[in-house]
């Protein structure tokens, strides 16, 4: 999960992701941030995030993003 936090901090260094509980719901990140994050996650974790997984619930917390990564890695 450390690498995930590094990626998130690279995209938005002004946000303390570890303390946030509603990254999307609170408007902390926008669609452009999501695109950057998805691209980095795809490269770093060797996954492909399908369109149907690009839901706010999957990106609203660091834990939710990590669960998505784990799920996609298990499916490979």
List the helices and strands and how they pair.
Elements: H1 2-11, H2 31-45, H3 56-59, H4 62-75
Helix pairs in contact: 1-2
Question: What are its keywords?
Answer:
mainly alpha; 57% helix; 76 residues
Helical amount among residues, as a percent range? Answer: 55-70%
Order of helices and strands: HHHH
Task: Write down the Rg.
Answer: 11 Å
Q: Based on Cα principal axes, name the global outline.
A: globular
User: What is the number of helical segments per DSSP (H or I, 4+ residues)?
Assistant: 4
Biggest sheet descriptor? none
Structural class determined from secondary elements: mainly alpha
* Percent of residues in β-strands: under 5%
How far apart are the termini?
19 Å
* Count of beta strands: 0
How much is the average pLDDT?
95
- The low-confidence parts are none
Describe this structure in words.
With 76 residues, the chain is mostly helical. It has helices at residues 2-11, 31-45, 56-59, 62-75. It is globular. The two termini are 19 Å apart.
């Amino acid at each position: 999960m450390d690498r995930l936090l590094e990626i998130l901090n690279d995209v938005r260094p002004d946000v303390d992701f570890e303390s946030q509980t509603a990254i999307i719901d609170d408007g902390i990140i926008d669609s452009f941030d999501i695109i950057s994050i998805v691209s980095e996650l795809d490269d770093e974790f060797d996954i492909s995030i399908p369109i149907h997984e690009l839901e706010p619930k999957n990106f609203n917390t660091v834990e939710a993003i990590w669960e998505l990564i784990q799920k996609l890695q298990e499916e490979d």
